[in-house]
Specification:
3 helices; about 100 residues; alpha/beta; four-stranded parallel beta sheet
């Protein structure tokens, strides 16, 4: 099983890197976890919708090889640690390769 956390933004702040390393240590050794940072699109001469579309295309391309894609959204349902553990266990049993997406803008 492989989990790719794909985020827009080449230079992640230190607090994000610290959090990722903290949680990565808690994952089972059998999980192959990777952070993939995609370069944010240049803002000059583009509106937010154009940027979202371009970055969305980059995110979709980066999911290649994944059979399950999950896009994080601040307006979506929040899950508990217990429910996420349940999801993770099922994905692991199925041998799923997961792409977790965090967009920009």
């Amino acid at each position: 099983m492989k989990i790719n956390l794909i985020a827009v933004g080449k230079k992640m702040p230190d607090w994000i890197q610290t959090g990722i390393h903290h949680y990565q240590k808690q994952l089972p050794a059998s999980l192959n976890f990777n952070l993939i940072a995609l370069e944010a699109q240049k803002r000059k001469g583009k509106n937010n919708e154009q940027i979202k579309e371009l970055e969305g295309e980059l995110l979709i391309k980066a999911t290649k090889g994944s059979n399950l894609t999950i896009a994080f959204d601040e307006r979506s349902k929040q899950h508990s640690t217990k429910s996420m553990t349940h999801f993770l266990s099922n994905w692991q049993k199925n041998g799923d390769n997961i792409a977790l997406l965090i967009g920009g803008v």
